[in-house]
Each structure stands twice: as C-alpha cells, then as structure tokens.
Amino acid sequence: MTIIHSEIFKQYPEILFGMSTNSGGVSSGSFGLNLSFHVNDNPDDVKENRKRFFAELGISEDHVAFTRQQHTVNIVTVNQSGINENCDALITEKKNIFLSISIADCTPVMLYDPRKKIIAGIHAGWRGTTGRIVEKTLLQLKHEYGSTPEEIIAFIGPSAGNCCYEVGEEVASQFPAQCSSVGTNGKYLLDVKRANVIQLLECGVQNSNIEVNKDCTIQNELYHSHRRDGIRSGRMMAIIGMTK
Ligand SMILES: [Zn+2]
User: Fold this and answer.
1) How far is the centre of ligand 1, averaged over its atoms, from the C-alpha of 218 (Å)?
2) Pairing mode, if any, of strands 75-77 and 89-92?
3) CATH of domain 8-160+207-242
4) N or C: which end of the chain has fewer CB within 10 A?
C-alpha cells in the first residue's frame, strides 16, 4: 500500500499524517483502494479497504472524525470521532482524534498550529477555494484558539493539477489570473493548489511553512480521479491527528 506522507509535518513527531492512494485495496476495477461508501462500490470491500488503510497508519477507525462533504465552506470543531454532516473542514484540539478528508481531485489542505496544538483538515475543491474555506478556517482557529497564521504549518496534498484540470471561463474567471492558463477549445487549465497557496500567504502564513505536493491526481494513476474515472472513481482519504 502506498501512503503519501508530508515532509513538513515530519518535524513534529506528535503529528500523524497520511493520505491514501489507489494502491493496496480489494475493490474491483478502478475502485481499488476506494474508501467511500457513497460511490456504488461493494460495502464489504470498502470496509476491508478502510481496515487496511487505518491499520497501515496504526490508528483505529473508532478514533476518526469524518465529513459528509458538500462543497460548502462549513467548518466544524469536533471533540469526538464519527460523522459530521454537511461540512468541508474539521478542527480539533483533541489528541487521538483523527480528522479525515475525502479526496478525488479536490485539494486537501491540512493545518497544524504547533504552539496551540490545534489541527484542521480542509476539503478545498474549486468551489470551496473561491468560497475561501482556507481563510475561513484560519479565522476560526484565530477566534476559537488564538492561533496566529504566522505560526501555522500547512500541507497541500495531491489533487488535480494545472497540467490536466480543464475548466470553463465561468470557473477560471473566479480565480486570480496567475491560477489559470489558456488551454484548448476555449477551456482554461486551473491551478487550485496555487490558489490555496495564495490564500494562505494572504492570510499571513509563511511561505516556508507551506508544503505543496506536486502530484496531479488526474494524470497519475496511483490516485483516484473523478475527472479521469467518472462514476467508477473511488475516493481517497487524507488523515491528520495529534498522537501526543
Ligand atoms: Zn495533471
């Protein structure tokens, strides 16, 4: 099983971070290591996939907080594991609660405040990004915990890259000019990772505290991709938690 790790979180031994790929699963065809029960995969296969992934990370599913993501900018602070309806970002100060973000092309943004010991997991698709969900999460961290952006560590995970992610003018025009380039057939190539880096920097996060994984989920078949595989696309999980 291939797990994506973060370099920037490695300097904090209390942080557990891992993102699944499409390797090491039991589901049929392109579902592979699908971790979602909502994509018409066999539920028994999904259970086995989840068991394997959480075992690989060394955590129990009983300690995972999940989101039912709806491309909103709703942010929930959690104190326990389980499912959180209608939200796209989770925050916790609790040890051994692992925040889970479901991914197949959208951008996972994971945050850590090493001074206040707070973590956040954010699902930033193009809608969440134009809705400024990263900025809103940073504001919530400030208001609830007194976090300052200058101290936040951020990881932007594998997602649709500007090599492949075609969108129409109506989407591209909602982003800063440097986040899109002209593609073919009147389409644009969108860089959602870049848009989230800009958002982090605008909020005061330091460039040296931001890591961006370069992998494109559409191009690289190690990953699930909704754009590439359509209704036969599974979902990956990005997990962050504090173990001590
Ligand atoms: Zn690509």
Assistant:
1) 5
2) parallel
3) 3.60.140.10
4) C
